[in-house]
């Protein structure tokens, strides 16, 4: 039975640079939206047109040969070949790195990043004999770059949806980061909803208006309390305000714990899918 190959039923599987994966036999990898199963089919002009891909697809090695080299040895932090690098960062090792970086998240925000990467490398050194801090940092930056490309592409009108095996676990970590623009509101391999700038602007204006009204109410309440009941009632109003602040802190903490639980759940699912050695 012939496969129904269309953008309605399949998404293109991409590599860490956001490029469609083409095998040595000139087959393209597709992911079934319904079953999440992978299929390898001949990469033809019709398939390229269906998914909006250039044909023929230029390979990275061909691009390097055609482009002048401007980098020096000092600018190349990793000397391993692509084949050696792929051996280091297989699916299992990449998931381990993601989980390790997540555990050091607070230290990355408050400490010297170079020292934190040394700690990450120490935790990951059993993955490969040549692994060092620079390898881990470079791989993490590559994961972030791919995540941003997939997120932007999947939420741009007219773009084809793309599948990436690490998207969900990366999204659980990154979607609340301030450097991610726009910020997604859900985690899904089949499309994410992102607030547009106008919507975000309206939300900010609404929040600002609420804050102004709350401040005015507090100021008015303070004046009335001073006039009617004096210091004792004012302290009572201050206590209520502090309780509201504490409630907001608790809510943020609960949200953070929910995100961590979501990350752990996704991570366990990815580990379960790995073939047993």
TrEMBL record:
Residues covered by the Myb/SANT-like DNA-binding domain: 88-173
Lineage: Eukaryota, Metazoa, Ecdysozoa, Arthropoda, Hexapoda
Region entry Disordered, spans: 62-83, 192-256
Gene3D superfamilies in alphabetical order: Homeodomain-like
Domain of life of the native organism: Eukaryota
Biased composition (Polar residues): 62-80
Protein name per Swiss-Prot or TrEMBL: Myb/SANT-like DNA-binding domain-containing protein
Parts forming coiled coils: none
Biased composition (Basic and acidic residues): 193-205, 219-239, 246-256
